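Bench notes, afternoon.
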Amino acid sequence: MIVKRDIYLNRIIERQNNGMVKVITGIRRCGKSFLLFRLYKEYLITSGINSDHIIEIALDGIESEDLRDPKTCYNYIKERIVDNKKYYVLLDEVQFLERFEEVLNSLLRIENVDVYVTGSNSKFLSKDIITEFRGRGDEVHIYPLTFAEFYSAFGEEYDDAWDEYLNYGGLPALLDMNNSKQKMDYLKNIFDNVYMKDVIDRNKIKNRDEINTLVDILASAIGSPTNPTKIANTFATERHSSYTNKTISAHIDCLEEAYLISKVNRYDIKGRKYIAANRKYYFTDVGLRNARLNFRQQEPTDLMENIVYNELLARGYLVDVGIVEVNQKNAEGKSIRKQLEVDFVTNMGNQRYYIQVAYDLSTEEKQKQEFNVLRKIPDSFKKIILVNGSSKPWRNEDGYVIMGMKFFLLNENSLEY
């Protein structure tokens, strides 16, 4: 099934012929190869590029085994360049190419060559891969299908598509699967045998039971502040384990480098500074998160929050969790300092939005909870509350924009309404 991925295709097009290696990164099975070899190649051809000026090599295929040797690969590409017109080199699964960094840097020295690569294994998935190209790499990071991409191919009503996405997420292969068991088995299998295997093998992790339990803890706690010390205390008291906070922190970094999770910093809005303690963690795909927990603990508000976070990243926003410190009186009438939380502070250029995610606002208590923190923010940037459902944007008496998830997810400029 073909899903147009225009948001990423346009980002690649914007980088065309910029003199750098375009590095397509992202979690495995999220559609990197399809984006480059199908969608971008089609764009090049429709733009008037002759197919003999597009050099594509799938390095994971048996037909390319000889080309995994660096000199053989370089010479093969060089021999295909027979005139001064622009050539586009597309290399898939470039980690199969020995000394690929040297090959790519050598290709960059050929003036009429534009280079694009993808990679999927533990070596290439690392977030620091761009440094391998000595500042000559330009990353295009892609995510599993956004809800709008998923919905465009799902072929059923919004409510059915939303329930499906909330349960199984947006890995493209799911669109071709016929039943729930097949989808559940697929997600559980690739989590254990692909993603976790990559993380453990790449980082030579010996305490496999501990890191697997750590993943379960993070999956159970999406949207909740936590830190390695708190997690280490849980291991010490419940499992009598010496899994230290230093090791836990390192393993969280490994999971983040493999794009399985994202670590979100907390930002003091009034103090204009970051708070190091108690970060939040979200999963790159909610289906993978659900599979990790055997499709239990599916709290809709938490999953909505995770989906909103991923959507904001896919749109290119920088995202933090907001903190507002206020003075309140306790039961004894004493004044105490309390931290109120804004789900997301999103920035792009000089534009900022404050976003709260709520399953519903049907009670006065819930409205007070969501609105109170927004009232304490001392600036005039737009404040938005996202609720479950299909309601179009409207403003309440405080001037806050309230909109349904359907409108937010299916309109790429929804935050501007």
